[in-house]
Amino acid sequence: DFVISLKSPFDVRNRLNMIGEDISTKYNKREDTVEDLVEYIKVCVESKIGNYMVFFPSYKYMELTYEKIRDKYEELNVIIQENNMSEEEKEEFLNLFNDNKETHVGFCVLGGHFSEGIDLTEDKLIGVIVVGVGMPQINIERDIIKDQLNENNRGFDYAYVYPGMTKVLQAVGRCIRTANDRGVILLLDN
């Protein structure tokens, strides 16, 4: 085995990484921490006019947060990814990010269309917030993978943690797409 290490072509000074580790995104804690989550989002998106995307591990969690943020801060321009959007609806959603004269906040799902297959370059997207680690739901298929790869007690990592972190990396990658892009990345989870 060997390791290859390559320097990134992207200037690290163009990216501000922040972590909020005082919020639990565990399923049974979401109701208790959603108010704090809303405050993190508000502070981040109000720091600079521009477009932001917030990625959630599930539609349900995204919708809970959307309801809370709309109730508390109705002046924020928040748009939400709908389940089963048509190609035309996806295009309309993304077109809202072409305007950066005011702040737009897109709520999206980790592992979905907007976290993996889009390029919003230049100043079309200046910030990404990722809520949680996006681990797959515990199920029989994942447990089979876990059992098969459980040498050195790492099966859970291979079946659940690594796929979740891959989703996080894909979402974070939406922020900086070219060498000229600048942006903020906020990761929220304890």
TrEMBL record:
Residues 59-190 form the ATP-dependent helicase C-terminal domain. GO terms for molecular function: ATP binding; DNA helicase activity; hydrolase activity, acting on acid anhydrides, in phosphorus-containing anhydrides; nucleic acid binding. InterPro entries: ATP-dep_Helicase_C, DinG/Rad3-like, P-loop_NTPase. This is ATP-dependent DNA helicase. It comes from the Bacteria. Belongs to the helicase family. DinG subfamily. It comes from Clostridium perfringens. Keywords: ATP-binding, Helicase, Hydrolase, Nucleotide-binding. One of its GO terms (biological process) is nucleobase-containing compound metabolic process.
